[in-house]
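ping. complex inputs:
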Amino acid sequence: MANSSTPAVQIEGLTKVFRLPFKKEQVVAVDNLSLKVGAGEVYGLIGPNGSGKSTTMKVLLGLISPSAGKASIFGLDSGDTASRGSVGFLPENPYFYKYLTGSETLAFYGKLCGLSRRKIRVRSEELLEMVDLTGARDRRLGGYSKGMLQRIGLAQALVGDPRLVVLDEPTAGVDPAGSRKIRDLVLELKHRGISVILSSHLLEQVQEVCDEVGIIFRGKLVREGKLDELIAIEDQSEIVLQNATPQLLERIAALVGEEEGAQLLRCGNPRTTLERLFLQEINKGSRQGGEDA
Amino acid sequence: MNFPLKNTSLFSGRWLLVCLILIVAGSLRIPVERDMELEFKEQGFRDWSPGLSSRDQLTQAAFVGALGGFRSLVASVYHLKAHNSFVKKNWGEVERYRTVTASLQPKFWSYWDLAVWDMAWNAFGYYRGEAEDYGDDFKGWQIENIVMPTYLQKGIAFAKRGLEWLPDDYRLLKVIADIYDQKMGNAGKAAEWYLKASRIPDAPSHVYRAYAHQLTLCEGREEEAYRVNEDLYRNSGDITLTLLRDLERLEDGIARRAASDMPFDRLMSAAQAESAGYLEMASLAMHLLEVKKDLPAATDVYEKVTGHPRAPSFYRRKLAFLMVEDPKKAVRGYQMLKELALSDPATLRREDITRIGQLESRLGIPEAKRIKP
Amino acid sequence: MFSPLRIWAIARNTFTQLVRMKVFYFMLIFSALIIGANLLFLSFTFEQELKILKDVSFGAMSLFSSIFAIVGTALLIPKDIEDRTLYTILTKPVPRIEYLLGKLLGILLLIAVSILLMSLLFFTVLYIRQHGILAERIASFPRQVSEAQIESFREDIFSRGLQPELLLGIVAVFLKAAVAAAVALFVSTFASSTLFTIIVSLVVYFIGHAQSLALDYYFSMGEMHSAAQRFFAGLIGVVFPNFQLFNVTDGLTSGEVISTSLMARLLGLTAFYLTIYSMVSWLVFAKKEL
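pong. complex structure:
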């Protein structure tokens, strides 16, 4: 994991006020928000709809200018076009140009990043492979499913070999299988040392990938910290056993009872998640001759 | 690239800068554009300006179109509309549409020409037919005396307007003369306009001839007419039938007036003078023929006339017919006619041919040997 | 940092995007129909027929290229915003000016290509008609026609038909559409919807035709005009582009000739307009909240 001293994202005191035209009202979308994403980290920005997640990302990406405060990417101010040389962005529910094929789309964005034709070809192959769309590279985007669009979107974000990837609701509207693929991709990115900042209101999914999490509500960052620290229920421990006999369980319960202050809260079959069950069934089904999701 | 101005509200510095740039850029280009406009005008690219009158004539869409640079397109559309109205015989519409077409494309001769033609020929002819249908009815009188002349005037008006744009187009001048001649029988005006037309450098020669011809039809301008026609006869190199006939008529007129106005001895001395032209002799001959009724003397004088190098050929015909009146000279006279028929058939008018036929019957000339004109 | 390649990538993409739009094909087919319909028009003399053919064709080309320039440009930025593709582009290291220039270049290319296609059709029809007229003339001649006479007919007829000067008219049609597109681009940077852009651009287009009248008013020495009226007229003259200058086809089809210097100035003026409107478009767009 890369560990340079410059943080991937540094937002300090960001405030964004929208003034409605021809009216006196103001909307404070982001209120004195500060956050930092270290190099190689995955940061999740979570909050309900309208809490300012998208606005924050847009400021970071130079699409909107802040009313106050600063945002920078690897030390370069967000207002600077140069800052975007190291960023890839996947917006929420994007439509790309429907008449372009997968590889043409990547070629287009590659040119925008200033890549040479040869480099584009190499990179496209790589990325299409990575997002598992090699089979659909010559199909027009108009024929892609939602999950496929998200994946090509991710590929497009990566075409410039960015060190930071910004994802706005990357799994919104995607089915669980596709969602899983995307989550795997994010983890892959993390393995490669690419910093990620993503926003989502699907909390379960954030939990699986993020190192650090910020909760944003009504424009303010109300809680922030490492994930493990945040959600660990500190005074509880978990032990998961396999093939334990009832006698063993009794012995353990007895041990707990002997300890001062400790309490056995729960004993029974841990629940799998509905998601895992769902995926199991699908995988079974696709092994019996299914199609690519 | 960081801009110091962060606000984007309507009255912010950014917008002021935008307005400033537009105004400054505008001011810079104005002089260049004005110069170009002037040059375009000089080159004839701005023949139409949206004055109030044009707004009346055009529909809203057409006006906008004309302003929007589709002047020619609009003109073409109105040209087609005019044609449709022509087919429907709606002359009011024809006039309106032709006006629009011509005013939108004033440098295009054809549109003016069509307008004149539709008014002075088509509409005029249509109403003449109407007048005939009405006969002696008051309506008939009205059409003949008010409507028809109005359309002739409209035709002339179009041509004159066209001349404001195309002052050097002989065709517009000529068509006015044609109207005066063919439709109104006004030889004086016709002559005036034919003359104007003939003065344009690229006017063909027949325009000047038309002028010459019209002069002969004018009362009281015989001298001018003779001068012009004689000059044509001598110098133009191409003697048309009309010219020949006109010249003969004019010379006959001159000779006849001299023969009746001047006393005999003055005629004699004039004819016998050193510098006597053939006209003086012809006058004398005319006098001898018509006043003194002295056929042989007249014949002799005509013989001298035909001997004059500048005497036109019809004098030989005159001589020939006089000779056939005299039984002694009849055969020679007939021979002369025969020669003329072969060498110069233009001198024989229709009435002459009839007379020859009668003569041949009288003389008993067999069919095979008769003159075949 | 300035990259013509990036601009070209955006331009090509814009071109492809617009070419697929049905509105483009409708306009092209419609104008083709109009030009082709010239073959049916009745006229009395060949001068009229050829002139009307040229007038109608130029009119159709000018109308459609100007309208398409405005409508096509008006939807470029709003569509990218609506589809959110704008975000994917501007979050790459693409300066906003390059984006604008790329869009403008794309639509100018498309306009050029469509004008080219329409001109080809126009020239073909003109060629067919002028040869047809020549044949008719020869056939209807009462006597046997000599070589010299054929030559004189040909010169007479062809001089009113397909002539190189027509190319200048076509260039002028393109230049006018180019300026209209630049205006529409500027309006679209601050407009709230495509429709708004189209309406405003059309209004500017029409006022631009009467702009020179406003200036005449301003410069005239008449005592009747108040200072306020003159100021207003002057303002109109300065702010609105002079579209009337590009209307050379009327004169061309009447046989007038455009001097090289005028044409050169027209080209320079177009470049000036494009530059200024790109500049102000950038000023507005650079800090537009997206």
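The longest helix of chain A spans residues 176-191.
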